[in-house]
Amino acid sequence: MKDGVADTQDTVVDGGAGEITMHGYTDLAAKQLNYQIAFAPKVTSSLPVIVAWMVNPATALGSLSD
């Protein structure tokens, strides 16, 4: 933080559902935010559900209701 401005260029949050990356700044004096945020889902954790929906949606609905 310098002169009321906090910035980041390489923040990464690695979560169970995916990865969030961001860069930008917060200007506390001007009360402004300027961030670019991206989310990349982890498809492999949802792969069995996706395949079930593709093969047979009725079976997938049944498995989700258990």
TrEMBL record:
Pfam families: YhdP. It comes from the Bacteria. Residues 1-64 form the YhdP central domain. InterPro entries: YhdP (IPR011836), YhdP_central (IPR025263). This is AsmA-like C-terminal region-containing protein. It comes from Paraglaciecola aquimarina.
